[in-house]
Amino acid sequence: MIAPAFSPRRVEELRPRIEANVVEILDAMEAAGPPTDFVDSFALPVPSMVICELLGVPYEDRAEFNERSVVRFDGTKDAATRAAAVEASLEYMARLVVRQRADPGEGILGMLVREHGSEIGNRELAGIGDLLLLGGHETTVNMLALGTLLLLGNPDKTEALRSEENVDAIVEELLRYLSVVQTGVPRVARTDVTLAGQQIRRGERLLCSLPSANRDMALTADGDSFDPWRKAGAHLAFGHGIHYCVGAPLARTEMRIAFPALFQRFPALRLEVPFTEVPFRLSSAIYGVDQLPVAW
Ligand code: HEM
What we know:
Elements: H1 8-32, E1 36-37, H2 38-43, H3 45-55, H4 62-73, H5 79-102, H6 108-116, H7 122-152, H8 155-160, H9 164-178, E2 187-188, E3 193-195, E4 198-200, E5 205-206, H10 210-214, H11 248-265, E6 270-271, E7 293-295
Antiparallel strand pairs: 1-7, 2-5, 3-4, 6-7
Protoporphyrin IX containing FE binds next to helix 7 and helix 11.
C-alpha cells in the first residue's frame, strides 16, 4: 500500500525537493550564526521537513512530535510514560486523519484516505501515518547527528565527501558503523526452532542486536573501525527480510544530499564542547545524542 511511495524511482523524483530543503535549512543555520545545537538546527529539520511534506503533516509541529518519539524509545522511562507517548502520538495522527478525510491533501495521508479510506478506519490509518512519521524522522535525525560527530573526528573522510564518487561508500559505512536502530521489533518464535545451534522454544521472544551483527567477523574484518573503503557484505542497518526498512531509499538519499552539503557550507564545522560532554543517549532503542553543540 505504501511501498510504491518510497520506491527508489519515486525517491529519485524527490531529490530536487530534498536538495532545496537542505539548502533552506543550511541558510537558516548560517543566518542564525554559531554556536548552535546541531540536532535542533540541522539533524532534526532535514528528515522532518521531508517526511512532513511527503505525508502531509504540519512541519511546525516537529518539536512536539519529536519530543514524543524520543520518549517512546527511551529505555530509562517507565512503561506507563512510554505508553502515554504512543497514545498521544496516535491521537495526534488521528486528528490529522480526520482533517484529511474532510479535505484529502496531496501527501501520503491524503492518498491513503482517497484510495483506501473506505476499507480502512481512522485508527488504522493513524497507525500507518504514525509508523511512517516515527520511522521517517527519528532514525535519520540520529544518523545525521552521530554521523556528523563521527565525521568531525575523521577530517580525511569529510575531505573525501567532496568527491561525488565517494559519497555512497561513506554513507553506507556510517550506516553500518553507527547502526542507530539497536534492535528491530522483537520477534516471537511460532514453533520450536534451532538457530545457529541455539535452541529457541515456541513463544520465546527474540531480539536481534543490529550493531553486533554489523560488526560480526562473518560480515567484515575489523568491524570496530570506521573505514568506508572496507570489503564487506551487505550490512543490516535497515534490517533484513520481510520487514526490511521501507524508507531505506529515502533515508539514503537524504544522507547522500545532507552530508556533502553540510561540509561544503561549513568546512570549519567543529564540536563546541569536549567530546566527553556530548550528551549521548544512555538507553534508547535508537542510539543518538540529545544535543550536539557545534560552531564554525
Ligand atoms: C537511516 C535511517 C533509518 C534506519 C537506520 C532504519 C532502520 C530500520 C530497521 C532496522 C527496520 C527493521 C525493523 C525490524 O525488522 O524489526 C526498519 C523498518 C521500518 N522503517 Fe526504517 N530506518 C530508517 C529510515 C526510515 C525512514 C526514512 C522511514 C519512513 C519513510 C522508515 C520507515 C520504516 C518502516 C515503516 C518500517 C517497518 C517496515 C515493516 O515492518 O515492514 N525508516 N527501519
